[in-house]
Protein 1
Amino acid sequence: MELRLEPEIPVTRVVNGHNVFNKGYHHGLKGKTYEEYYGEERATEIRKRHSDALKGHKYWSNGNAHAFACVAITPEGKWFRFDSITQASQILGLNYATVRKYIKRRVKPTNGWLWFLEKDTNWIKLIDNGKIE
């Protein structure tokens, strides 16, 4: 293990008559990997700690954090409800962004399906005994 002395960090310095915070200071990690800076064992610990900190969070794990139920109606009149846009994209093999564009009417689906958010009640008017009016 080698001895490392951290450089003295200049808090401010005068540049053109103004105090500038940390101008010209570069941290010791800049451009280095954890292994180069901390060593193999410590780098493994840090990476594990970061990984564990990100696991189990609703927002980062399964994509259902702010899920909106959506409805897709086929030209034949069949309609399908999905718990979320993410679920619809996974089941139908579509891109998540494409499904969102269909719902927002930015892109017209080539297969003729109509897409709606479930909370938007316009799709209910289109269904009459299982057929599109």
Note: The helical segments are 34-38, 40-54, 58-61, 85-92, 96-103, 122-126.
Protein 2
Amino acid sequence: MNRIPLRKRLLVRLLFASVLIAVCSVAATAWLAVATTTRALREEQGQALADDMDILAELSGYAATHPDWTGVEATVRALSAKTGRRIALTTTTDRTTTDRTPVADSAPHGASLPPRAAATVDPLRTDTYTERGAQLSGIDPRAVGPYRLTAAERTKLDALARKRQSCFARHGFDTSVTRTPSGRPVLTDDDGTVDAGHVPEACADGLLYSATPTEEKALTALQGPARRCLTRVGFDDFAPLFLTTDVTSGTSMAPSVTAKFAKIDDSKSLRAAQACLDDARRAQLDPYVAPVAELYLGVGDSGAAPRWDMSTANKAKVVGAAGLVLAVTVAVTAVVATRLVRPLRALTEAAQQPPDRHARVPVTTRDETGILAEAFNDLAERRERLEAQRKALVSDVAHELRSPLTNIRGWLEVTRDGLVEPDTELLGALHDEALVLQRVIDDLRDLAAADAGTLRLHREPVPADDLLAQVAAAHRVAADTAGVRLRTETAGAPWLDADPVRLRQALGNLVTNAVRHTPAEGTVTLTARGDGEVVVLEVADTGTGIAAEDLPHVFERFWRAEKSRSRRTGGSGLGLPIVRHLTAAHGGTAEAAGTPGAGSVFTLRLPAATAPGDG
């Protein structure tokens, strides 16, 4: 940092930029009065908007608790007097008519309506109660209809609430009793509904929040319409519906569905099922709420535009605000610049650490510097992972090459010392070890070519049935020796666009692997079928299978399900990675599936080709 010139340091440049911005802000202070006026007007508009939302919420509450609009005139006039707004309610229009019938209006009779409605009052589709100042999609919690408790039920629940409140108090919880729109008491504290959190065991009697006869009756009535709707949308076979009431919420008394439908296992179907419940609830509550109405809000004419004059006092305020803006801008920018430079210094120190330490830096911000720190940490993690993979690769390659070389060296030394005669059996064993060594080297060469992108393919149309027959013929002797039945199946006459040699190599690796892990009397099946623009090749066996936790690793290099490195338990660990690379080189995919004790299935999806003569 000391070698960086002062004028080029990031902190100095940021400070210079902040001073320049501050000077520009001083030049713009002449607009301060206008900005102040605009802010005042916006605050007034914000208050008007809040008043409008309060009006809508009040009228929605009236509609939710009355079967019609009879008597709403008094409420409309009281709200108009409180807010100074003109409030009018009319019936809604439909496709057949554009006439609106007045329901209530705070303005004199005959006054024209505003050009468009401010909102629609519909408690069955808009919730203005749960969150003040917002319109949420859903049923207004105040629309309780048949769920409203009787006086006897409220009296009984009030006694239970006081009993539970006393129990909570004995355990150190200060609570109060609030009442939901349906009349049900709920225990709450400063943080919300206490019964939604930890309930002392002594207080958990389960009586306070059990459904009352009124609620049970309403929920039972809801079952039929919900079931009929589910049948209409195609859910004929489903588990019984269990409808409950959400009684632990201080603002909701609506029923909720807790059923698990037998054939509904995706979010789209679950939304359709929930829509059936919502429609049934709206139909159940409809007789208890007022009809949908349009709300019109008018602006009063008593307010005049505020005047503003640049007086001496206002000029002093402008100058003082300008100086304050300059000082605050410089101070804030210095703080921000310091905080910005600190993570950059941490990045520099981490980058200067020895490579083998793989240093990380803390991510303290979410800006560009934080993104850079995350990228640096990701790079360090990838380096560490690649280094571990490199070490593991070197270790595995050394082991795979050392085993056959050790065997060859040992036999040659004992033969040289005259301890063993170089007979045919010995030469065969040495030849087998040499073949193992050659196979490992060939596999490594193929993988290196695939990694380098130099793996060449000679594509041509290949009949799938001939390909399977050739692979089966090549491995028939090995399968018969192991007592494994090897058979092929082809659906139709699919053709592949592939390199036949490389494809035989991939399928050969799969068949070898399947035969190795299939016991005597087992079966290995090669199948091929067309699937649109791809051909699906499968190698299935009835062997030991693959555990679920091992499936993500089967295509990794040198990985074996058995942890032993004995060659009797498996191959070199390169066969399946080669299959994956050869399939990817053809533009296809390789997948593995299996169940322990029930066998495994390896599936290759490769591009299809048009049979010669069909074009």
Note: Residues 247-263, 301-310, 564-570 have pLDDT under 50 and may be disordered.
Protein 3
Amino acid sequence: MKKKDNINLAEKISEISKKIEEVKITCFYMLSTDLYKIENNKLTEIITKKFENHPATIMELRATKDNQLFIKKHDSWRIPKELQHLKSKVDEKTNYYLNLYFEKLEKEKQNCLYSSKSNPFVKFVFTPLIEIDGEDELHFFFVTLTIFQNGSIIIELFEDLRSSFYTIDFLHPYTIMKAQIFPDFKKKNRIYSLNSDYQVDDILKYIKKELSSINGGLKLTESTFILHFITNMDQMNKMEFFKKDKLYTWMINAPYSPKNVSSKNRSKNYLTNYFDLDSINYINKGANYIVWNNGNSNNFESNFLKQASFFLSSATPFFQLVCLDETIMDGLEKFQLSNDKQLIKFNEWIHNYKRSSLFIYRINHRAVFDLFTHLQENSYFKHDEYIEKIKQEELNLLKERNQFNELQKNRIMEIMLFIVSLVSILQVVDIFTNNIIILSISALITISLSIGVIMYRNRK
């Protein structure tokens, strides 16, 4: 493909992609090799105490036993004087997104699961980063932190990508900014900074740093999943540009060369097949998921809620289990399990973590379970027999090392007791005689026996 053709295609894609109605959610699932030391309720309490009154927190949500949501809101941050003319618009859109992404979405997820009793959580929503393009259009980026009862810690980045556009590789959507309103989480006041050098990544790093400081320092393992919820896929695929290669195939196979996309001899890894449920479709490649609904509705809000609530109800427990496996495979040496007691406690933690996902098997909504099963069976994160064998060997080696260390401790204790008993014999001999020769011979015999026993034990 010629350079001029590439330029024309890039311009065409950027223009067409503006019509995509999409919500992108990047999920960072985090577990620590030290979490088995902390009781789950205690972990929830620590994180809640750290963030419930944090200046950055503007909303808190909790699952309740009666399948309702406890919601607590804080005042919004103030915007700079230079942008006071946008204040009402910022307030209006902030409240709209808080209601859609968090209140309505969480309620819809609970309706899919029919119960929150087995899946309690606490979610903190932080004040958004806001970008302003050349036409004073506002683009919001929300970061949330959720702690589940099983110990999962999840950071999510919500991006409303309407009015954004993609480059030629269909990998990175972006806007052309005129200004950026940044919330500096490190400051005590609740006032946005205008055109700060900080980015969303700085917010994420700050939250992860705060989490890592828990309990004297946690080494967190992170698994990332990227979810694209396209709410007007049917309309987009009717366009001439996507009639041959559907929009979801462009997105799921990104990044790529336009030459390869148009080639007749595509790679066997070029994905086109998707999973079809009654209410949604999805296609995945690694940690990247494209989700859309079957209906022809033009209602962005209802489409998004239908897709996201259903998919996340199944995907959340699946992603948690993937994160657990990757945390274990990240290296058992990190756990520093020095005895059988710690190993048993660690294995109990793994078992309880896995058992917490059993609620997915007991739900009334069969389609949610079917999707969970399909995610497991068709995941790129499957562990084959060899990997499972290596994992089991590591656990066995860890157990053998602990048993060896325990045996060494017992041997040292036996030697010390033997020496003490010999010294006691000398004290008894000393009671019956003051003869230096006899005492010296007794001491010599005692020392010889001690050395002999130590050499014999070491040889053994």
Note: The chain has a mean pLDDT of 82.
